Amino acid sequence: MAHDVGAAPHRQVAITALLIAAGVLILFVPASDEGRVLVPLSEGHGLSAVDVVGAALLALGGTWLEVLVVRRLPHLALAPRTLFALGLLAGLGIGLLVASVFSGFFWWWAVGASALGVAVLVLVPLTARR
C-alpha cells in the first residue's frame, strides 16, 4: 500500500474492486457446479471449495478497501453525522447479510446487500478521488 495517505489511491481502489467483483462472481457459481459441501452452515447453506476461494477474494478485497477508506477519512471532509450514518448503514448491511445465512429469513441478504452497497457507493468514489 502507498505510504502517502494524501495521494489518490486510484490503483489500489481499482485492485480492491476487481478482487471484490471476482469474489462475488465466484460465489454466484451454482451449487450444482461447486462440488461437495466442506462446512455446513445452516439448512441450505454450506461452504464448498469454490465458496472458500470466492470468500477469500471477497474478504481480501473488502478488508483492503476498508483500510483505504479508514486511512483516508480525514481527507474526505465528511460531517460526523454523515460518517455515523454511513457506518450504521454499512454495519446494518453486514449484519443482515450474516443473519440471512444463519436464519430462516433468506431474502434479508438483499436488504443487507443494498444497505451495504449504498455506504460503499458513497465512500469508495470519495476515497478514490480525494
Question: Can you offer a commentary on this structure?
Answer:
Strands 1-2 form a two-stranded antiparallel sheet. It is mainly alpha-helical and 130 residues long. The protein has helices at residues 10-27, 49-76, 80-102, 108-129; strands at residues 39-42, 45-47. The model has no long low-confidence stretch (mean pLDDT 83). Helix 1 packs antiparallel against helix 2 (49-76) and helix 2 (49-76) packs across helix 4. The longest helix is centred in the middle third of the chain and has 28 residues, at 49-76.
Helix and strand arrangement:
Elements lengths: L9 H18 L11 E4 L2 E3 L1 H28 L3 H23 L5 H22 L1
N-to-C SSE string, H for helix and E for strand: HEEHHH
Q: Are there runs of 5+ residues with pLDDT below 50, and where?
A: none
Strand order, biggest sheet? 1-2
Count of distinct strands: 2
Helix content: over 70%
Strand content: 5-15%
Which whole number gives the mean pLDDT? Answer: 83
Structural class: mainly alpha
Number of helices: 4
Distance between the termini: 16 Å
* Rg over alpha carbons: 16 Å
Principal-axes shape call: globular
Q: Which sheet architecture does the biggest sheet show? A: 2 strands, antiparallel
